[in-house]
Amino acid sequence: MIYIILFSVHFLLFSWAFYNILYFGVKPSKSLSWILITFLFPFIGVFAFILFGINRRKIKYFELKETKKRKKYIEKNFTNKANTNINKLNSNKAIKISNLVFNNTNLPLQINNDIVVLKNGKETFEALYKAIKSAKSFIHLQYYIFENGEILSKIISLLEEKRQEDVEVRILYDSIGSFNLKKSTKRKLKEIGVEIYPETPFKFGSFIFSLNYRNHRKIAIIDNKIGFTGGVNISDEYITKDTNLGIWQDTHVQITGCAVANLHATFLKDYYYATDIDLSDKEKYNKAYNADGNIEIQIVSSGPDYDQSVVMQQYLSLINLAEKSICVLNPYFIPTVSILEAFKIAALSGINVTLLLPKVTDSKMATYGMYSYFEDLLKAGVNIYLREDFSHSKVIFIDDEIISVGSTNFDCRSFEHNYELNALIFDKEIISDISDEFNERKELANKLNLKDFLNRSNKQKTLERLARFLSPLL
Which of 216, 252, 264, 269 is flagged as catalytic? Predict the structure, then answer.
């Protein structure tokens, strides 16, 4: 009798899940995976679907109150703007992608900026320390990971000095990414006068949101004059050898100029969500400052609070607009069907497509999932290089004309669930600087050969397929 009851409940739950997958699923391959998961794993599969699979952009009943709150803020603060600087761009492809980003986010292209490319953790933290020391009015920090260690201790020491000078300090952190951040550290920060808040706190009524919708952004703003973004978190992994991966490599950028105000606008939106305090109407948090340079930058903010998958469309647009070359540096390459096909079409069209990826990542499941796409890509003529060190950089550049540096991985989580942020840069000198290092790293990496790759073990192939099947959960 009990088995009949359990079977009946499972059938009802599966039927409900099947209906929602069938009518509101976006990608057939992903929908099929969810159908199999919910059918083969009674109760657990449906629970996983509720947590990770429901398309909240399509099903208004499941639109989270947190998302509604963010959308209201966007309607209030990100409308009635114009992309007035777009005529400064010197190519049709640049104009197209700038319009795409603006129409999705209302964040316009900014001119008169300077950029310093920070190629590793050491350079990034030294620049951040210097910027914090220069602060006169406020310091705003937002990172997916704040981790106790040498880096965080140094930052806290600098913030304490700044608080003694009456400089405002605000910190946002992600509850999942910074799960190991000690309570004593948060207490210390509050004691010195820092306003610190979790971006997605664990609390009754928002568990699903906290678990699956993570704020993956890395932002630092000093007085609206200096801004930082990229892939680097506040962690000692960038300066101390990890047991398995060594010292993590990453790419970050320091921005000065009007684009900093647009970068800050995303922080202010997240701060409002975390605290219910709206700072957007105060001039000092919105004032834009020109820099001496003439670099054009557009901030790309993305998340479930937008109607479109902004960063996926940004990446897809870059791939489709390329005419000569596409270079990708990313730690978690688990592309959607549309992204995968775009890369294959580009390579088959004669465009030089090069992926520089880590041989091993900090997640075995992600590593196997990444490897599962290599055969299709190699057959299409995509060049794949595997580097021995672990690179956490999220960079793509095309035709030596347009480059994106930010927090976004090539996976469904970044495209559909996470709050992400990229800097889209239109400057050949910046691209040349990053391209030189890209080529140096490529020469040290192992280029995959299709014939050799096909000879990998059956065990490897099985693990790859299993990871690909479970990719909706990654």
Answer: 216
